[in-house]
Amino acid sequence: MIRSTIYLFAFLSAGPGLATDAVRGDATNFSSPNGVEERCVRIAQIPGGAYSKGDLEDEAAFCAVDLYADAVALCPKTWSTSPGMMVYDISSGPYANDRAAFERNACKEGKSAKDLAEGDHAKFKVTMNAEGTSGTYSASPLLYYHFSRYFDMDVKVPVAVWRSMDVAMHTSEVARPGLSMSGSARMNHAGWKHLVDAETNPASYSPPDDIFTADRTQIYGVMTLSPGHRYGSEINGTRKSGWGKGQNLDFQETPAFLALRADAPLIEAIDEGLAKGRRDGQIDRDLGPDVPREQMAYWMREVSEIVLLDFIFSQQDRVGNIDFTPYYYWIENGDLEHKRAKHHELGAGDVPAGAMLLKRTDLNDNDAGGRVAYANFAKTTQMLEKLRHFDGKVYERLVALDRDLQSQGPIYQWLSTSLGLKDREVTQVVNNTALASGIVQESCRAGRLRFDLNPKEFFLTGDVVPDEINCDPA
Question: What's the rounded Cα separation, in Å, for the pair 122 and 89?
Answer without folding.
Answer: 9
